[in-house]
Amino acid sequence: MDRLMLLRLPRGGLPEPEIPEAAMMLARVPIYGTKDAGRRFWLKLKGTIVTIGMRQNSQCPALFTYSEDGDIKVMMGTHVDDILFSCKPG
């Protein structure tokens, strides 16, 4: 993560192992619902997509394509944590 995030435990602490309610936990990864969670998810998704051979569109960075011999086989659009894709048969 790019910032320090400390989390309060729920009332009564955690049952296993016994951690007192007054304890704090350090978040090492983005937590759902925080301001940076959607962006960090998208960056991880983008890295994975590019690793498997898809290319990011230069005009629309949220659009990715996979081509074979100059023919686009798969198109995928993203918005934060929503994904829409289409592909040709076969």
Mean pLDDT over the full residue set: 86
> Which structural class do the helices and strands define?
alpha+beta
Poorly predicted tracts of residues:
none
Please give the domain count. Answer: 2
Net shape:
elongated
What is the number of helical segments per DSSP (H or I, 4+ residues)?
1
Query: What percent of residues adopt helix (DSSP H or I)?
Result: 10-25%
Q: How many E-type strands?
A: 6
Largest sheet: 4 strands, antiparallel
Strand order of the largest sheet: 3-4-5-6
Radius of gyration: 20 Å
Terminal Cα separation, in Å? 40 Å
Strand proportion, as a percent range, falls in 25-35%
The ordered H/E elements are: EEHEEEE
Care to describe what's here?
- The chain is built from 1 helix and 6 strands.
- It folds into 2 domains: 1-31, no CATH class; 36-90, no CATH class.
- It is an alpha+beta fold and 90 residues long.
- Strands 3-4-5-6 form a 4-stranded antiparallel β-sheet, with helices on one face. Strands 1-2 form a two-stranded antiparallel ribbon.
- The radius of gyration is 20 Å and the shape is elongated.
Characteristics of this structure?
90 residues, alpha+beta, 2 domains, 4-stranded antiparallel beta sheet, two-stranded antiparallel sheet, 6 strands, 17% helix, elongated
Give a brief rundown of this model.
This protein is an alpha+beta fold. It has one helix spanning 37-51; strands at residues 6-8, 24-26, 55-56, 63-68, 71-79, 82-87.
